[in-house]
Amino acid sequence: MSNLEQEKLVLEGLARNDRQSIEAIYRDNYPMIQAFILNNSGNADEAKDIFQEAMIVLFEKASSGVFELNCQLKTYIYSVCRRLWLKRLQQLQRYSGQSDNMDETVPVEEEIEAHEKRNTDFIIMENAMSKIGEPCKSLLDAYYMQKKNMQDIAKNFGYTNADNAKTQKYKCLMRLKKLFFAQVKNGQ
């Protein structure tokens, strides 16, 4: 089944108030909208509000019986949310642009593609991290995720000093980089 056919089924399900269709729309689109709102002067509650408003618009369109989607569903949802958010920012005086020129502000397709590329890169990085092995995985996690300094890492991992820990971190980083780019090259 093609992506277009799947999206039509999801829209038909939405029009019937089908729980699975609604959950699929949320699951596939909300993270992108939340990231957009958070990156553009908003917070998590505002992202939920905007997405809910877009769902209402989409429900009304899908229920009308005459709605014809002429782009990907995520593109449509993104553009509705973007317009709603820019309108809200204007009302709150956090955005000074003209609402008539919204299409010129940010090319929707390019922003979605960039978001998808980042998501793909994160998945590849997560996969590479799972293959890197110990102690590299724990060491990189301690430094980059837990924000520990080299002295603490040296102490926790049994290195003689911070310089040795730093050298090991560099070697682990190079191994991770090699795994990451090998997976990108192989299209995984």
Describe this protein's structure.
The chain is an all-alpha fold. The protein folds into two domains: 3-106; 113-185, Arc Repressor Mutant, subunit A. It contains nine helices and no strands. α7 packs across α9 (162-185). It is elongated, with a radius of gyration of 22 Å. The mean pLDDT is 83.
Topology:
Blueprint: H1 3-15, H2 19-38, H3 44-64, H4 73-91, H5 102-105, H6 108-132, H7 136-145, H8 150-157, H9 162-185
Taken from the alpha-carbon principal axes, the silhouette is: elongated
- Alpha-carbon distance between the two ends: 22 Å
Give the class from helix and strand content and strand pairing: mainly alpha
Number of domains: 2
- Helix and strand pattern: HHHHHHHHH
Percent helix: over 70%
What Rg do the Cα atoms give? Answer: 22 Å
Overall pLDDT? 83
Poorly predicted parts: none
- Number of DSSP E strands: 0
Beta-strand residue percentage: under 5%
The count of helical stretches stands at 9
Largest sheet: none
In short:
By secondary structure, the protein is mostly helical. Helices cover 77% and strands 0% of the residues. The protein folds into two domains: 3-106; 113-185, Arc Repressor Mutant, subunit A (Orthogonal Bundle), CATH 1.10.10.
